[in-house]
Amino acid sequence: xxxxVNQAKLENKAEQLVAAAKRAGAxxxxxxAVTGVSLGTDVRNGRVEETDRSEGDDFSLRxxxxxxxxxxxxxxxxxxxxxxxxxxxxxKVAPEDAFAGLAxxxxxxxxxPELELLDDTVPSAATLTELALAAEEAAMAVNxxxxxxxxxxxxxxxxxxxATSHGFKGSYVSSRFGLSMTAIAxxxxxxxxxxxxxxxxxxxxxxxxxxxxxRAGERAVRRINPEKVSTQTANVLYEARAARSLVGHLxxxxxGASIARGTSFLKSEMGNQVFAKGMRITDDPFKRRGAATxxxxxxxxxxxxxxxxxxxxxxxxxxxxxTGRELGLEPNGRARRSGGGTSPxxxxxxxxxxxxxxxxxxxxxxxxxxxxxxxxxGVNGVTGDYSRGxxxxxxxxxxIVGPVSEITIAGNLKDMFARMVPANDLDDRYSVAAPSILIxxxxxxxx
Length: 447
Prior knowledge:
Elements: H1 7-23, E1 28-44, E2 47-65, E3 68-74, H2 80-92, H3 125-140, E4 145-164, E5 169-185, E6 192-200, H4 209-222, E7 232-238, H5 240-253, H6 256-261, E8 280-283, E9 306-310, E10 313-314, H7 321-327, E11 335-338, E12 341-344, E13 349-351, H8 358-365, E14 368-375, E15 385-396, E16 399-412, H9 413-419, E17 421-422, E18 432-433, E19 437-445
Parallel strand pairs: 7-14, 13-18
Antiparallel strand pairs: 1-2, 1-4, 2-3, 4-5, 5-6, 7-19, 8-9, 8-13, 9-10, 11-12, 14-15, 15-16, 16-19, 17-19
């Protein structure tokens, strides 16, 4: 474990808070201690613009008095008794919540899996600067790239400790490395920008900065002199980077909190065919070196691997203890700490790839829009109505014709999910991962 993060100190503080809360009159409680150390550098035009280092701890104590609860947070804990007494006093005057409470004891994680969460490499500011400068240099070497939008390199260690009054104590430390580059092509009002990036758990897995820079430059150049398209119904192929948003919309729709509130367009679809047969979407908290890999959830419970979509059928909501109790369902270890409390959410959510390449898909449908960038948040989670700005490339006879922009894609996610066809180019580096996705017959609003 990295000596940059003092987990023993955090564990001790969390246990002190739990003990103090019990003495103050809490029927049950849990404490979370989080620490972080980060270093980052930004460069532009071959020079360092900024270098930042930060570190700090955060503590939160959640107490239950009967069905009433309260949460207090602090950046440091000098007097656990004072913090606990304030939390219990707040809980006593809070409204009752019939579904609040700690996880059932028999669901607590007993054996901690061995996971690849931590790279002990501690980069210097000079190392990060070299990475960023290499990415920028590669982007600027691309013909027709006229300006640098800047490059950034970063490193972070994060540690978390969870202790509960019914016997759970667990902790883990994870690392994260990141690199990004933004390039600008063209001049004056015809300028276009695009970017490329990578982030990963182990430095050895980070993409070559030259590759990141070159791709950022090439993407920006490809966007020069975009045209508009007429309003029409067309085939739309979301490249993998844009396709992740579609899987993200599913994650929001099957969140237990949305289901309990009745605010999801999929609230009545459990057990139904939501996607085409053969489609599989898996949520895996134990994915090797995954962006959201973790040994236990925010309540200290095990998190099984879930095929939330199995052969196109919706099989699971994301549930923490509270939403599980409210819906009368067994929780499935998807609790996230949020403001000291919990809320359900996904871990490493992945849409399995299909058989054909994006190029083969474009040839099979003939013409349409290849989406490389999406704008705005035009999704109604209650109805599933979808309306987002987009840009990308028009293709005819399976071949790219040229860049297009100022387009709005409209549809309904329930219908879009049913007609999604995945390509074979899965990029699984991210917490929400997807290959390119083809949806035929969407409405495009253009000129």
